[in-house]
UniProtKB/TrEMBL annotation:
A matching Pfam family: Hexokinase_1
Any one biological process term the GO annotation gives: intracellular glucose homeostasis
Domain Hexokinase N-terminal: 40-236
Signal peptide as annotated in the record: 1-17
Primary localization: mitochondrion
Gene Ontology cellular component annotations, sorted alphabetically: cytosol; mitochondrial outer membrane
This protein's pathway: Carbohydrate metabolism; hexose metabolism; Carbohydrate degradation; glycolysis; D-glyceraldehyde 3-phosphate and glycerone phosphate from D-glucose: step 1/4
Mode of membrane association: Single-pass membrane protein
Protein name listed in UniProt: Phosphotransferase
Family per similarity comment: Belongs to the hexokinase family.
Enzyme nomenclature, EC number: 2.7.1.-
Length: 496
């Protein structure tokens, strides 16, 4: 009798255990099912079939035309850079550059040796701007910059001292919104990146710097005021005459390209001899109903400092990709208990997951995806993640980066289409090179490969043969010095 009771008790215990396991399994499969369903819906919404990309490119072309026709006529500013003379490769001599775009600035000295030698030597120095100067007066900020520049110039080799009566020439990369009024002047529209110096808004930036250079006794002329995208075109063009556009894919994104001056209705000046003009598109602000936007993009935009603006930038550039991944993971954690019963608190912090971390997870080739596990633990304090969980994270990184890369390719295809370089014309052997720069393009290899492959897919085999993509780094530094050289007031003047 005791044996029967013991046997029944054991059977009951086993049944209860089985029921518990089954219940747990139901809960787990329900959790996975819900998380996978969130991922699936997101993947579908981010879809970029080739027909959609063609529509995005067409919309880009329409906006380009509108922006060239009139100021404010388009989401694309299509700013006239006043650069109508790109480096030819023949430039020789010593030129300076000043690259101001954040809490540091760089001073560069670039020695050019013409066709034979190219860029012979580059010396540079980075200087941190004290925080109080970022919110003080323009006088103080530019005096600080001019003083640092004068100190840098003092280390110049003796043989490069300018001849009597000549000034040193400088290319000035100023990465803040500016309304350009000539190749060497432009008024500041507004500050960004932590700067707030009201007395210089609406003033000529080059004028302010020139006054400070005079105050510190530095004999230097600003020959060109540019942004980094225009500099990227110049830097690449110095070594390759087939370069027609420059694209930055980094923390932010932008594009500049060479336009025929007769197709710029808003151009009021004399037609330049070259017949060409570099246009700074400011394409980060592009928007179209054809862009595959999701609830996560909308939430990111609404929480940003500039809601409703820079939509294209917010889905393809390095500042935002990691945060889109975080937002989807947060939804999985909240709605599907993806990381357990408690939502990891770090997952609620905007921008805690950076794009370089996303890239590292996406490129993880280990069998147990240990890099993914380590990143989730170190950044988000999520312990004990399963392989299945890590695989979903990698898939999520893939969806976000593929969408960004394919849209970037559609933007480039739009530029080629606007210029009529998206097809091969009978009897023509034109080659078109797009220069690219930025950490996203340089370091996120899956993004880069996907972008390049998508561009080929859009162009088709024959046209793809005529289009090249090349990495051209430091347009904001070396590119600025090269533009100072191509805009030099001493061009054609003999050294004697």
């Amino acid at each position: 009798m005791a044996k029967i009771i013991l046997g029944a008790a054991a059977a009951l215990t086993a049944a209860l255990a089985a029921a518990t396991v089954a219940g747990h399994h139901l809960k787990v499969s329900g959790k996975w099912g819900h998380a996978e369903s969130i991922l699936k819906v997101f993947g579908e919404e981010c879809g970029t079939p080739i027909e959609k990309l063609r529509k995005v490119a067409e919309a880009m072309v329409v906006e380009m035309h509108a922006g060239l026709a009139s100021e404010g006529g388009s989401k694309l500013k299509m700013l006239i850079s006043y650069v109508d003379n790109l480096p030819s490769g023949d430039e020789k001599g010593l030129f300076y550059a000043l690259d101001l775009g954040g809490t540091n600035f760089r001073a560069l000295r670039v020695e050019l040796g013409g066709k034979e030698k190219g860029v012979v030597n580059v010396d540079s120095e980075e200087v941190s701007i004290p925080p109080h100067l970022m919110t003080g007066s323009s006088h103080d900020l530019f005096d600080f910059i001019a003083t640092s520049l004068a100190k840098f110039v003092s280390s110049e080799p003796e043989e490069f001292r300018p001849l009597p009566g000549r000034k040193r020439e400088l290319g000035f990369t100023f990465s803040f919104p500016v309304r350009q009024t000539s190749i060497s002047s432009g008024t500041l529209i507004k500050w960004s990146k932590g700067f707030s110096i009201e007395d210089v808004v609406g003033e000529d930036i080059v004028g302010e710097l020139t006054k400070s250079l005079e105050r510190v006794g530095l004999d230097m002329r600003v020959a060109a005021l540019i942004n980094d995208t225009v500099g990227t075109v110049a830097k690449a063009r110095f070594g390759n005459k087939d370069v027609i556009a420059g694209v930055i894919l980094g923390t932010g994104t932008n594009a500049a390209y060479l336009e025929n001056v007769t197709t710029i209705p808003k151009w009021q000046g004399l037609l330049p001899k070259s017949g060409e003009m570099v246009i700074n598109m400011e394409w980060g602000n592009f928007c179209s109903s054809d862009l595959p936007l999701t609830e996560y993009d909308q939430a990111l935009d609404e929480a940003s400092l500039n809601p409703g603006e820079q939509i294209f930038e917010k889905i393809i550039s390095g500042m935002y990709l990691g945060d889109i991944v975080r937002r989807v993971l947060l939804k999985m954690a909240e709605k599907a208990d993806f990381f357990g019963d408690i939502v990891p608190h770090k997952l609620r912090i905007p921008f805690i997951l950076r794009t370089p971390d996303m890239s590292a997870m996406h490129h993880d080739t280990s069998s147990d995806l240990r890099v993914v596990g380590k990143k989730l633990r170190d950044i988000l304090e999520i312990e004990n993640t399963s392989l299945k969980m890590r695989k979903i994270v990698v898939e999520l990184c893939d969806i976000v980066s593929v969408r960004g890369a394919r849209l970037a390719a559609a933007g480039i295809f739009g530029i080629l289409r606007k210029l009529g370089r998206d097809t091969v014309k009978t009897g023509e052997e034109q080659k078109s090179v797009i220069a690219l720069d930025g950490g996203l393009f340089e370091h996120y290899m899956k993004f880069r490969t996907c972008m390049e492959n998508t561009l080929k897919e859009l162009l088709g085999d024959e046209a793809a043969e005529t289009i090249g993509v090349e990495h051209s780094n430091d347009g904001s530094g070396i590119g600025a010095a090269l533009l100072a050289a191509s805009q030099s007031q001493y061009l054609g003047v003999e050294d004697s």
